[in-house]
Structures are given as structure tokens and as C-alpha cells.
Amino acid sequence: MIRKSSKTEEDPNKKPKLSYWSKTKCICPVCQRPFEKEEMLTGSGRMNAGDLTDELHRLYIPSPKYGPVFPLIYSVGACPRCHLAFFWKDFEDITDAASINALRDDDENRKKKVSAIFPHYNLNQERNLLDGAAMYYLALLSYEKVDLGYAPTFKRALCCLRLAWLCNHLNETIPGYNYDFIAKVFYQKATFFYEQTILNEMDRTESFSPVNNFGPDIDKNYGYDGMIYLIGILEFKYGQQTDLPLRYKKLDSAKRAIARGFGLGKSSKAKPGPLLEKARSLYDQISDLLKEANSIDFGDDDDEE
Nearest CA to 157 among 99, 101, 211, 219? Predict the structure, then answer.
């Protein structure tokens, strides 16, 4: 007599799941249609945290069971009908008529632009790396059309930075499709939008007060200090180099901002250790570059610290 096992045996050919479809559907504010919300599963060795890069991007170590994972691709959603894309919370928050009308009129433009860079993306399946990158690009184009009251400039900066990371991962996964070049373009756009975020806040044309989590990745919120650091590291690594006096001026400004924000030399909840260490390293690198250039007045570094 053969006894049946009380446990269901796992199909060895079944692909391990990285995500699930939420029971609560998302309502698109533009076309008013519900669509599925995909969320990443955690635990069981799916997310093995690796190094933190100098851009505050958390890398994850692939596991034999799940392979490479990219948790940040699940932070945005996209409507399969009109290709509107936002960070999930903004599907509920962005409701004003002017923004909705502008988004509705731009749907074909969004589809055309995204298809040119991420061909054959699919919004109706469990997302892969290319689908996730396409959703971030859709979000970048969507935030271009929303009211300044929703802090779209910061959100465009965040989308661009994450797009650069994802394009680099795409280049590693499927080399030969120029995603390394596209990553550089998004890095440059991120540099511009982060700097513009600060300028808009200073002249009171757009506040970033609606932002709850500055990221830039999903594992930790580095807050305003993190944004100041990012402006420095992005300008240092990806800023323009055709107008060198302007480059040195921006780097000197970034160095001084870092000195003001991180000059205490002590780790705290507001200035966590890893960020403080990276800010110190960046400060030294910028100082060395500016001294080598010898084209501006550096002031007294000791006084800044």
C-alpha cells in the first residue's frame, strides 16, 4: 500500500517566486481603471544585502535559488492601459484636474519614448529588470506633467538616479545594447534634477516637504543630508567637463555644503556612519581635485570643518 504524503511536494521545475499580486488593486487616476499591484516577497534568502556603493545604491548578492534580485523595481507601478507610472503612494495622492488632464494628453508620447529605449516592455506580467526600468522611465515622464505641489523635481531626480543604476545592471545582464551609455545620460539628468530641487526649495518655487523618504535606494532613508551628499558625488563623477571654471565652481560649492553638513565628525541617527564616511571621502577627493586645478580660492579648510 502506497501512502500519499500529507505535504505537497514542491515542483523542482517551478520558478521560485520573487513577487506576488496584492489583494488590493490600484486605481489609475487618469483612466480610472483598476490594475494589479505587484509587490516583492521578502525572506527565504531572496534579499542578501551586499555592498553599499558610493552612490548609496545597495547591491544584493545573487542566491542559487533566486538568482539576481533588484528590489527597487517594485517601488513604482504603471497602468497597463494609459502607461501612467508613479511611486505607489502617488496613485492616491495626485488627483488635481490640471495634472490629470496633462497626463491624459501625454499618454502616447510616454509609450513612444519608453519603447524607443526599453523595447518590448510588458506591464501585464511579473516584472523583470527591463520592465522595471521601463516603469521608472514612464514615471520620469509622468512626473514631468504634475503640479509642483507634489515635489515632482525631486521625484524626477530619484527616478533618473535609479534608472542609471538599472541601466548599468541591464548592461551587465544583456551587454551590447548601449545601456551603459544610457546610464550616463540618466546620471547627468539626475545631477541636474537634484541640484534644481535645492534651488527650487531655496527660492520657494517648489518645496520638497511632501517627500517622506529621500532614499535614494529602498533599504535606508538618508534624508536631506543624503541628498546634499548625492549632489556632490554626482557632480564629481558625472558633471559636465567642457566648462571647467563652472565645474570647479560647482564642486567647490558642493565641498562647502558637505563640510557644513558633515563637519562634526560624529555618527548619529541624523548622520549615520556609512554616509558620514562616504561624505568625508568625497570631501577629500573634491579638495584634492580643486587643489590640483589651482583655479579658485579654496579658503581655509580647517575653518569649514
Answer: 211
